[in-house]
Automatic annotation (TrEMBL):
Gene3D superfamilies reported in the protein's UniProt record: Endonuclease/exonuclease/phosphatase (3.60.10.10)
Species the sequence originates in: Hibiscus sabdariffa
Upper lineage: Eukaryota, Viridiplantae, Streptophyta, Embryophyta, Tracheophyta
The name this protein goes by in its record: DNA-(apurinic or apyrimidinic site) endonuclease
PANTHER family per the UniProt record, alphabetical: ENDONUCLEASE_EXONUCLEASE_PHOSPHATASE DOMAIN-CONTAINING PROTEIN, RNASE H DOMAIN-CONTAINING PROTEIN
Length: 144
């Protein structure tokens, strides 16, 4: 997996990399970040062996992390001289009992702000049965 990430970074030369469900501590991820030639970082540590988020960026990007939780990193971002906008990097909770709180937190991030906003990541929501493979059966009440 690290080799594939390194190859993609070499080929596409991204200025921001977001990893979700890393299941790894900061110390391990910092070694990989250096291989990716990223300059800065922000981490949400995993809980046990679950979760974990990593956000890496180069010095060509200005990233101001505004808020973070176990399922998201919310930041204000600008590239060089371009205008600022907001990005929320997400790994939505896989457990039904955590989803309502997650959606409430997410919706409150931008309620008082009309700036540009981009959400990136995995919301862990299945909208229709065709998207689902394996595991528990499709639950239409969770697709709302």
């Amino acid at each position: 997996m690290v080799r594939a990430l390194k190859n993609a970074a070499f080929r596409y030369k991204p200025e921001i990399i977001f990893l979700s469900e890393t299941k790894k501590k900061k110390r391990y991820l910092e070694k990989i970040k250096m291989k990716m030639k990223m300059d800065e970082s922000f981490y949400v540590e995993p809980v046990g062996i679950a979760g974990g988020l990593a956000l890496w960026w180069t010095n060509n990007v200005n990233v101001d992390v505004l808020n973070a939780g176990k399922s998201f990193i919310d930041a204000k971002i600008s590239f060089q001289e371009e205008e600022e906008y907001y990005m929320t990097f997400i790994y939505g909770p896989p457990y039904v009992d955590e989803k309502q709180q997650f959606w409430s937190s997410l919706s409150s991030l931008r309620t008082s702000n009309s700036e540009k906003w981009c959400i990136i990541g995995d919301l862990n929501i299945v909208a229709k049965p065709e998207e689902k493979q394996g595991g528990l059966p499709f639950d239409a009440s969770q697709a709302k």
